[in-house]
Design goal:
Layout (H helix, E strand, L loop, with lengths): L1 E5 L2 E5 L13 E4 L2 E4 L5 H13 L8 E2 L2 E10 L2 E8 L4 E9 L6 H15 L9 E7 L4 E7 L3 E3 H8 L4 H20 L2 E2 L8 E4 L4 E3 L6 E2 L4 E2 L12 E2 L17 H5 L6 H17 L9 H10 L14 H10 L11 H15 L17 H4 L7 H4 L3 H21 L26 H11 L12 H8 L2
Antiparallel strand pairs: 1-2, 3-4, 5-6, 6-7, 7-8, 8-10, 9-10, 11-13, 12-15, 13-14, 16-17
């Protein structure tokens, strides 16, 4: 990645320079050894030759404390990245190395170690994991062994295939927002969110990489023991000097351009908003002019309306991007949870099924205060259903009250209207003349005594004897 100085401040250009990790390697470990595939990787060889011009550099096949270098991938001002094989565990790693013979400054060495310390404290599926950090005395280099991500970064994907579909942009944005939420839990600000620092695997997982510019608050950075020969102080709390701007000017927040030491997670949210704009259009929000003009545009100009270039972008998604990129950080999303909920709402309105998308299912981002609340007791779920719950409750209550009022008492017998009463003696056609007289009296409306005990059946039986 190319760097430029503007008014004494160091900024980087996203549109040029090598990629840290781009695509599949042409070297693959077989049985613990690396075999070179037949296809020649000219691009990698050209990158390696450019690095050799600077001076001494490593070669494929060399050993670095148990890691065998396989293929040069890329690099920049904060070191170079190799595909390497861990010969003990037989796995591929991304080995980021810093050559100490290149007259590197104290600030770069301390920042290199800070990157390792910050990455080692993180464990999230959307962040490339750091395995180990150390110094190889034989090669005189510092190195960071990291998770190797088999994929390509978003910048290269867009260069090869064009702007991304809306649903693809949405799911990548959600995953990186969840990664930023994890960083925020450890008081880490990335300070370099951009398309080339987001890797995407073939299965759809987005991985955030490169914590070289990250700032971790309330943490002291120290050199490893035994490095007294470097003649550097053992500890250093602040690695950002006054008057120095760190970041990539295509995606840098206004406050980070002014003073990178005072930024918080809202600066990363601004950069993610610029990255979402890039994913949907193929260009950064301010693509015209030189570096100084772009920095000034980030300070005062409103970004172009994304719907002028992409009419298929939902208005709700446009509003999320616009809010994330507001100049005043107090007017942006104040934390990643707000941003995640807004992106989820966009997905709901547009009909995207987020849980079915690769890399989305994770509970890490859910606010802790909501984890312990059962879904049935969550007021936010029920308050939207009151429009039909209240009338239904009133109706059921009215039915219950009316049913109670109209129901007969336990000691009452209700005879339905129109029902005739038949004497028990009528069931016996061979009854005596006395029974016939009683039946005639009943038909004429005269009272007829009804035997209670013994039963009518017993009385008839006795008369028949």
């Amino acid at each position: 990645m190319s760097s430029q100085k503007i008014n004494g401040k160091l900024v980087e250009n996203e549109t040029s320079g090598p990629t840290v990790i781009t695509s599949r390697p042409l070297l693959t470990p077989v049985g613990g050894r690396a075999q070179i595939l037949s296809t020649e990787n000219r691009e990698t060889e050209e990158k390696l030759n450019q690095v050799r011009i600077v001076g001494r550099f490593l070669e494929p096949g060399q050993m670095c404390n148990g890691f065998r270098l396989l293929q040069y991938i890329g690099g920049g001002g904060m070191g170079h990245v190799w595909l390497a094989e861990d010969e003990e565990l037989h796995r591929c790693v991304a080995l980021k190395v810093l050559d100490l013979q290149q007259n590197v400054s104290e600030d770069i060495i301390l920042r290199f170690r800070a990157e390792a310390q910050a990455g080692a404290s993180l464990n999230h599926p959307n962040i490339a994991q750091v395995y180990t950090f150390g110094k190889c005395q034989a090669l005189n280099i510092l190195y960071i062994a990291m998770e190797y991500v088999d994929g390509e970064n978003i910048r290269d994907r867009i260069c090869h295939r064009g702007a991304l579909p809306v649903n693809e942009t949405l799911v990548y944005s959600l995953q990186i927002a969840m990664a930023l939420s994890h960083l925020d839990q450890f008081q880490i600000v990335h300070r370099d969110i951009k398309p080339s620092n987001i890797l995407v695997t073939q299965s759809g997982w987005a991985k955030l990489i490169d914590l070289g510019l990250a700032r971790q608050f309330n943490t002291e950075i120290s050199l490893p023991e035994g490095d007294d020969d470097l003649n550097f102080p053992a500890q250093k709390k602040d690695l950002t000097a006054t008057g120095v701007t760190l970041g990539t000017f295509d995606f840098i927040s206004p406050e980070q351009a002014r003073e990178p030491r005072t930024v918080d997670i809202r600066s990363d949210i601004y950069s993610l908003g610029c990255t979402m704009y890039y994913m949907l259009t193929g260009n950064p929000p301010f693509s015209q002019g030189g570096p100084l003009q772009k920095l000034l545009q980030h300070q005062g100009d409103a970004p172009p309306d994304i719907r002028r270039q992409r009419t298929d972008v939902p208005e709700s998604f446009r509003n999320v991007i616009e809010k994330a990129m507001r100049k005043d950080r107090n007017e942006r999303f104040q934390d990643t949870k707000e941003l995640i909920l807004a992106l989820e709402k966009v997905a709901e309105e547009t009909g995207f099924s987020l849980p079915a998308m690769a890399g989305y299912i994770t509970l890490d981002w859910i606010p802790k205060e909501k984890k312990s609340i059962p879904m049935i007791l969550d007021w936010n779920i029920w308050k939207g259903q009151l429009a039909w719950i209240v009338p239904l409750f009133v109706l059921l209550t009215a039915i219950f009250v009316l049913d109670y009022l109209w129901s007969p008492a336990e000691n009452e017998m209700v005879i339905p209207s129109g029902t005739s009463i038949i004497s028990p003696y009528e069931i016996y056609p061979e009854s005596s003349h006395k029974e016939n007289r009683e039946r005639n009296s009943l038909q004429q409306g005269k009272p007829v005594p009804v035997p209670i005990s013994p039963s009518p059946l017993m009385e008839i039986s006795e008369e028949g004897k």
